[in-house]
């Protein structure tokens, strides 16, 4: 090979690598512990000391999910911390530690837990009333703030011994960890705040905690190290092509080495495979065989073009035979969400993380109607139609404008097909001039996807 040609080739490669690296740095910093669509989203754990006891205190620990669209679903949260001194947990109401630990130094009364680093889980629904407190016992499930603030809270009561009995001698626990149930959350240090004030049900008397501290935990998709869990497919009335989810988005069908890594929907033994696994209480997903292998697919169909309006149909399909999604939600970004006229059979809430942005919306099911996305099978889907009012200055079916820019399912970014595959208008020369923004966005998301796969 001509050496000068080779040199310029390698220069080009080096340049490309530098560009890719800087892009990937950018995508790392944007994914790390920061969500552009929910910049203040956090889970705050508030620890209110209600009374002092002869050797410690009784506290109510409350977890507030201040995230707009990320909830904690079954099997629920796990909270851990490290005691600063030799504290023990005498008893708990509305939650329990997973291990008692070594309580052999105690005679007579035995504490609930003597571990230096206890791990706490919620109790299950159906716990006897005398073992409950308000907001407990939901199996660790916490709704998101937008979907239902009333159930975005979880609480338990804890009686602590050997801890100090004044606000000067008590030491706050350290190293809080929150799993939901996997990784993803990072918790900061506990900070002493103003003692919480509680008012009685009739509002005629206010009481006050002896001492209050709180801990803030934030989520990062990067820390969660998840492979994608959902993908997007597209179609339109003006073109017969259905653009499927990219192949192998969430995994590849394994031909020989892992037989049974997915199930064929038409398999005659399907029912027995699915129910077998159900019995063994196995939580690993059991996915229907598809080219994308994602447990969730979002389909966006541009359905009708009216004079003043246009209509989209959105379908969410569950391909996981072992998962019912309760309180599911979608976050969708599309420039026309500033003028959504009507939505059928889903709830809608605009998300405006910054005053200037109003193209993002949260969609979620209607309580007792379709807020429960059933396991894979005939009922494993929910759907809705959206009616948008056209803004004459921006509206077009050209260049894939009618398709969403970004979709999240339950807070996880769903992988979009590459923009050059979008269905296009029959007459269009539109393919060549795909907007640079779309290209860069896709490049970034594919890099982020690539790194999250490592
Ligand atoms: C956590 O969220 C609450 C409610 O949105 C907010 O007031 C608070 O400032 C947030 N905390 C942090 C550390 O971001
Ligand atoms: C402890 O209580 C005293 C008296 O109520 C108060 O002045 C002080 O600020 C409290 N200290 C802390 C750390 O809460
Ligand atoms: C808290 O965690 C950090 C890092 O994991 C560790 O270095 C430190 O010793 C822990 N602190 C306690 C009190 O366990
Ligand atoms: C948590 O404590 C910090 C520091 O005292 C305070 O600014 C913040 O408002 C508290 N957050 C909640 C939710 O109580
Ligand atoms: C499985 O293997 C066969 C032959 O090797 C190939 O034709 C087929 O495309 C493979 N299927 C998948 C889903 O990879
Ligand atoms: C999903 O819900 C249905 C109906 O409540 C139930 O029969 C099924 O066992 C559930 N599946 C899983 C995997 O929990
Ligand atoms: C959305 O934002 C754009 C640009 O800032 C603004 O022109 C428009 O009026 C906003 N629409 C609504 C409904 O707030
Ligand atoms: C949204 O629609 C209303 C009428 O429904 C119209 O007055 C307004 O200008 C539209 N806003 C945009 C940004 O198109
Ligand atoms: C529909 O869009 C696809 C690209 O996704 C293109 O290949 C095809 O030619 C289009 N069909 C028509 C009739 O233009």
TrEMBL record:
Residues 1-33 form the signal peptide. The chain crosses the membrane at residues 434-453. GO terms for biological process: cellulose microfibril organization; plant-type cell wall cellulose biosynthetic process. Keywords: Glycoprotein, GPI-anchor, Lipoprotein, Membrane, Signal, Transmembrane, Transmembrane helix. One of its GO terms (cellular component) is side of membrane. It is a lipid-anchor; GPI-anchor. InterPro entries: COB_C, COBRA_pln. Pfam families: COB_C (PF25079), COBRA (PF04833). Residues 229-423 form the COBRA C-terminal domain. It is found in: Cell membrane. Belongs to the COBRA family. This is COBRA-like protein. It comes from Coffea arabica.
């Amino acid at each position: 090979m001509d050496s000068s040609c080779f040199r310029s080739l390698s220069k080009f490669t080096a340049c490309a690598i530098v560009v890719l690296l800087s892009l990937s740095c950018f995508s790392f910093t944007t994914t790390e512990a920061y969500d552009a669509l929910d910049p203040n989203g956090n889970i705050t754990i508030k620890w209110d000391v209600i009374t002092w006891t002869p050797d410690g205190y009784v506290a109510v620990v409350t977890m507030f999910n201040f995230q707009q669209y990320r909830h904690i679903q079954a099997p629920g949260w796990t909270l851990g911390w490290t005691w600063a001194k030799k504290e023990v947990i005498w008893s708990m109401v509305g939650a329990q530690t997973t291990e008692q630990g070594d309580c052999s130094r105690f005679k007579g009364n035995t504490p609930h837990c003597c571990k230096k680093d206890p791990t706490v889980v919620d109790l299950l629904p159906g716990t006897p009333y005398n073992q409950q407190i308000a907001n407990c016992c939901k199996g660790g499930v916490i709704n998101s703030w937008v979907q239902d603030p009333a159930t975005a809270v979880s609480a338990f009561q804890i009686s602590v011994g050997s801890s100090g009995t004044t606000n000067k001698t008590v030491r706050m626990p350290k190293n809080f960890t929150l799993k939901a149930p996997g990784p993803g959350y990072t918790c900061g240090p506990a900070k002493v705040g103003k003692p919480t004030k509680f008012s009685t049900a009739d509002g005629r008397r206010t009481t006050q905690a002896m001492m209050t501290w709180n801990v803030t935990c934030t989520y990062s998709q990067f820390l969660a190290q998840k492979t994608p869990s959902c993908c997007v497919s597209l179609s339109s009335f003006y073109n017969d092509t259905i653009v499927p989810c990219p192949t192998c988005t969430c995994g590849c069908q394994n031909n020989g080495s892992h037989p049974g890594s997915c199930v064929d929907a038409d398999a005659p033994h399907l029912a027995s495979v699915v129910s077998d696994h159900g019995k063994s209480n196995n939580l690993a997903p059991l996915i229907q065989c598809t080219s994308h292998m994602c447990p969730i697919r979002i389909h966006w169909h541009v359905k009708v073009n009216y004079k003043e309006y246009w209509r989209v149909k959105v379908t969410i399909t569950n391909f996981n035979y072992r998962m019912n999604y309760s309180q599911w939600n979608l976050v969708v970004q599309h420039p026309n969400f500033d003028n959504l006229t009507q939505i059928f059979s889903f709830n809608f809430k605009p998300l405006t993380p910054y005053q200037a942005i109003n193209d993002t919306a949260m969609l979620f099911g209607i309580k007792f109607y379709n807020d429960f996305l059933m396991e894979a099978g005939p009922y494993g889907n929910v759907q809705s139609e959206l009616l948008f009012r056209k803004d004459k200055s921006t509206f077009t079916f050209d260049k894939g404008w009618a398709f969403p820019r970004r979709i999240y399912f339950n807070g996880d970014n769903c992988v979009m097909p590459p923009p050059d595959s979008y269905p296009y208008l029959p007459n269009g020369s539109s393919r060549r001039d795909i907007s640079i923004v779309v290209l860069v966005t896709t490049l970034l998301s594919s890099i982020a996807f690539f790194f999250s796969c490592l």
